[in-house]
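The methods section describes the discrete structure representation at length, but only in general terms. An entry of this sort, consisting of the sequence and the corresponding backbone structure tokens, reads as follows.
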Amino acid sequence: MTDHRPGRTLAGAALTLLVALTPSTSLWSQAPTPAAAPAAAPRPGATTFEKGCYSCHSIGGGDKQGPDLKGLTTRRSHDWIRRFIASPSAVKATGDAAAADLFRRFAPVVMPDQALSPDQIEELIGFIDEISASGQPFVPAGAKLARAVRPADADLGMRLFTGEDRLSNGGVACVSCHAIEGAGVLGGGTLGPDLTALNVRFADPEVIGLLQNPNLPTMRPLFAAGKLTDEEIVRLFALFQREGARVSHAPVQTAGGGLGGGTRFVIAGGVVMLGVLIAMDRIWRRRLAGVREHLVRRAKP
């Protein structure tokens, strides 16, 4: 006998609906969340170029400490490039005219031998070809500041440059080899170039890349185990940015219109030497004063 009571009818209908809408049905199923796309792997050769070559070379950005490498494989054979990357000095030693010309044009900078495997060299050549064909200059992916520049950074950068504040990882102060306007009376060292107009000669990514990977022959051993921190890079970049702006807006000086760091050093050295000579002369003149006075007293009747 059929039960027509309303309660039973409603309960049966609810049970039927609940069974129909189980998680296995499309109404309850949710579309799977798409997996996050993996980070794009760097192009073969890109990291090697950025960390090992960009300090001295560009691809489409003009000559730097070394030649612009845009269109390299159209100027030199693949075998020549491979041998030169591995050991520039060895290629020059064979009497190769192209290698000798490069050494002459970019003296006194000498490209060191590169500790790269044959596969890494092939990837590097392929990367240079790829960027050359793109028609766009290479810009390092990592050539970005860790934070925005603040007004106080330039002064803090000068303290790092002069060594007044020590570099965190034990690197050598810039003033040991480089000069910059305002860095003391003597203006800094003369082993490396004057960096006052660094931000004028190079684009911002180039300056940042150089600070991140100072791979120049003389700088590589000094910073191999003591790289600049992100904060130090920001402060030094701010210093170079400020000095570059001053140079860009300063009136052009005629020859002899100003004293560079090297000239000030020579003048200061001359003044010190003159003072030493005067002091030595006075000491020399008085060396026998006591003896002479004794002889004069004895000679008197």
Observations:
- The chain has 14 helices and no strands.
- Residues 261-285 form the longest helix (25 residues).
- The two ends are 167 Å apart (CA to CA).
- Residues 153-249 form a domain with the Cytochrome Bc1 Complex; Chain D, domain 2 fold (CATH 1.10.760.10).
